[in-house]
Amino acid sequence: MLAALRLTERMPKFVQFLVVSLQSPSYFDNIITRAMQVSAGEERLYYVFLVTHFQSAETASAFHTRISWARLNNTRASDLRRICDSFLGQSRFIGDHRRYFRAMLRTARSQYTYETLMSYVGEVRRYGSQSSFFELSGKPQFETLYARMAGIKNLNSRIARFDHLENLSRTHNFFIVPPKTFYSEDASGPLDGMTFYYFGEKFRTKKGKLQSLLLSDTFQSDWNSQVTKTFQIMNLRDNYLGILRKLEGWLITNTRKRVPRRLVDEAFVYDLESCLCNWQKGKK
Q: pTM to 2 decimals?
C-alpha cells in the first residue's frame, strides 16, 4: 500500500523544531572563528578545505600548522606523503560526515589524505588558484561549483561537496548564490527528513519503493491538487529527479514563509537541510 501524502500535517511541529535550531548556538561558530585567524585569500580557502576533509576545525588547524598552502605548492609528493604519515600516525578526530574516512586504519587515512590533497591541488591549478576555482571575486551559482568539485578525488560525494560549499559560504560572507535544492537523491539524511515530512516514512533502504510512489498516478494526482502551479508535476510524469526537485522546492518555499523573518538569511537552505537530517533522527 502506497504511503499517503500529508502536505501540511507536520508543518507546525517541523517549523517549531527549525526555529529552535536557528536560535541555538551553531556548529559553524568555531569554524568561522578559526578561519578568521588564518590569513585571508589562498591560505584561508585551503584551511576551509581541510575543515571539510576532516570535518573538524581542530584537526584542520593542527594539519595546517604542519603544512600551509604556500608550502604544499612547493612540496614534493614524497615529502607530502611523509607529512601525512606523521600526522595521521597519531589519533586524530574525524567528523561523522566522514564516516568512511574515520573508519580507516591509520595508514589508510594517510594515503586517503595524500590522494585528496594531490587531487585538490591539481584541480585548482587548472584554474590558476583556489580563488579562481571557486570564483571568489564573483557571485557563483552553487550548482556550478557543485558540479566543478566532482573532479576532486575523495571529496566528490554529495555530502562532501555540499558541506564544503556551505563551509566556504559561511566563512566568506556568503559569496555563493544559495542552493535551490538539497540534492536529496544522493543524500540519506535530507531525503529521509523530506519523505518523513510528506509521508511519515523513511525510504533510505527502500529507494525503489519511493520511486514507485512518486511516479504513481495516485501520488501525482494528490500532489497536483494540493499545490500551486509552480510546484505541480504535470510535465514530469516519469521524471523521478524532477519530481524530487518539486518536493524540495515546495518545502523550502513554504517553510521559509512560516519562519520569523529575522531568522531567514542567506544560510536558510543550508540550515533547513541540516534541520531535516536532525529532525528525522529524532534529535532534540
A: 0.91
